[in-house]
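Figure S7 source data.
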Amino acid sequence: MPHPFNRIPMKKITLLFTITLILSACNYHTEEDTNKNLSEAPAYTAEEIKAETIRAWNAYKTYAWGYDVLLPLSKQGYNWYEESLGISPFDAFSTLAIMGFDKESQEIVEYALEKNWDQDIYVQVFEVNIRILGGLLAMYDFTQDPRILAKVQDFGDRILPAFDSPTGIPYHSVNLKTGETKGNVINVAQAATYLVEFGILSYYTQDPKYYQAAKKASRAIFDRNSKIGLPGDYINIESGEWTNNWSHLQAGVDSYYEYMLKAYLLFGDEDVKEMWDFSLDKINQYLSQKHNGMQFYACVDMHNGEVTKKSMSLYDAFFPAMQAMAGDLENAEANMASWDWVWDKFGLLPTRYLWEADSVEYANSELNPEIIESAYYLHQITGKEKYINMIYKYWQDLNMCCRNDVAFHAVKNVETMEERDYLATYFYAETLKYFFVAVADKEVFDFNDYIFNTEAHPFKKSHFDPVKTKIYLGL
Ligand code: DMJ
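Tokens for the predicted 1-deoxymannojirimycin complex:
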């Protein structure tokens, strides 16, 4: 596979030449291309993804070990807060474990066992839940090592005080050492993306308090739906009042919906199934829009359903996966086709695109997984070859636009492909994992056996006995 950027001496050529070269290398999908045969991108193998994963992981170990994040261009580490939480290793573990990198996985287990969470820092509850708690739970699910369960429970107990609010919706941040909280206006995803991790923690600790806290938070959002049945996107967690009346399924709301469906599928909780069914009806009724024969999902006013913005954020590309998982293949395939069309326009997805105005609002792209995730679900569920061909194409484009001499990097602008010195931790947890499982043998990873948390940490369905689940989660 060609990696043209690695051969270009970027600093030695003129800016004009660089931009021309990058545009021709990366932005090669034109509107006329959209109907061409997608099988043009070459197939890749699971071994190839493994080689790229270990290369990128070794870059983290070499340049950023102990930090949260690798900065792959300046080749150094970066922390989210004043002290490191070590997020990359926790996010990377389940991907390395599935790929069979036993030595590297064991190194992360040792790192987790040594980690002391007694840190006097405020952390964002949503982010540490999906990445650290989710990563550690997956580590326990893989290893069944009771020492890891003790670490997970310790971490869970440190973020649980965030849920001690008048509404039961968590504060934005919690101090890991003191349990003090701050931040009383948060978005819906930050408010209600806990059912999966907290349910698993309840199961493994046999203590319903975690799942019950998560469910109270999700319920508190759902119960504040408008008269026409839609949530807003920002809420004051003390007063329970919406501070923004936009309703959508984009970044800031996305995983609230995702977790209702997944908690039902993993735990059989009929209450959250009802919430999901109701919400999906409203999404189809108010958010779904047709434009130029394609299907998009708009932002609308939560009180009257009027469209407020015809935009998509690259995070919403997770939704075809949810539709497919829920059995709504017609909408899932129509939605996926729109995402693939946007990808073809740029050769990567921009962070926010205005589909009616045909203009880019936020041009950066951060190695995000969602479009690959949805193509993977659709390939698994429909068996249609076009979806694996899309994944081959995404891999080829990502390589051309984001691969560097040690790992991969984000881009500041999908129209110029200007590089950004950042490798998000979810690239290890999600993006590389979806590329891998899309082509891995069923014996290595069988899609039907697992539910992923929103950070793609996989949990084996068969590990959760339905009778015990009801007791341990308090259903
Ligand atoms: C991930 O951290 C999670 O999937 C989250 O739910 C939103 N998306 C990012 C990656 O794009």
